[in-house]
Design goal:
Blueprint (H helix, E strand, L loop, with lengths): L1 H12 L8 H8 L5 H15 L4 H15 L5 H18 L3 H17 L3 H17 L3 H18 L2 H15 L4 H18 L2 H11 L1
Length: about 200
């Protein structure tokens, strides 16, 4: 299952980091007073340090959380920080802490009725639960994302989510699994994405 989920997992958990050095980012942090900019710099520094110095990375994500509370829109900024923290802990496979941060962000997005960000986050939740072998909860969140992407009519994302739902059903209901794989195959036939075709056909086989 890890192979089937890999491309989607990478897409969701990858985080863009600009080419500035960590030292330059830290120097920049010490010279600005704008709380929103400080949040973004702290986040970038934390992501830079997460592989080489985890303890310092956590200190910077905690600083980002502190600065977020001082911004003009503290709740949504905090949600942004929580999602980053959740992804960092997920990269370490510390899934219980990752989920804690994701659900903090989830509560905010739900309260604010921010459906787009809520859907992105529920996709992350589904991935975490699938990696943690909790298929029931993974399926619940994947289906939520599926319904959202269906309403947005994004065929590429629909194929990916259908492929993942099919994979989750594989061990518990082969007919349902086949149903979702075939739906993914049908949609991909309209966009002709060769990479997605390989994943879907491999699973069908």
């Amino acid at each position: 299952m890890a192979t089937r989920l890999f491309s989607f997992f990478f897409l969701i958990l990858s985080l863009s980091i600009h080419s500035q050095s960590t030292k330059e980012l830290i120097d920049g942090l010490n010279t600005i007073n704008d709380h929103q900019k400080k949040v973004e710099l702290c986040r970038k520094i934390a992501l830079r340090l997460q592989k080489s110095d985890w303890d310092r990375a956590i200190k910077y994500i905690e600083l980002a959380e502190s600065e977020a509370k001082k911004t003009e829109n503290p709740e949504l900024t905090l949600a942004y920080v929580y999602v980053t923290a959740g992804k960092m802990y997920a990269s370490k496979e510390v899934f219980d802490v990752s989920l804690k941060y994701y659900f903090k962000a989830h509560d905010i997005y739900k309260q604010k009725n921010n459906i787009e960000e809520l859907s992105k986050l529920e996709n992350n939740l589904a991935i975490i639960y699938s990696l943690g072998k909790n298929k029931e909860k993974a399926l619940k969140y994947f289906l939520n994302v599926y319904h959202y992407q269906k309403s947005k009519n994004d065929p590429v994302k629909l194929v990916k989510i259908l492929n993942n739902i099919g994979t989750l059903y594989l061990d518990k209901n082969v007919d349902s699994s086949l149903h979702y794989y075939q739906k993914a195959q049908a949609i991909n036939g309209t966009i002709k994405d060769y990479t997605l075709k390989i994943y879907v056909y491999t699973n069908l086989a």
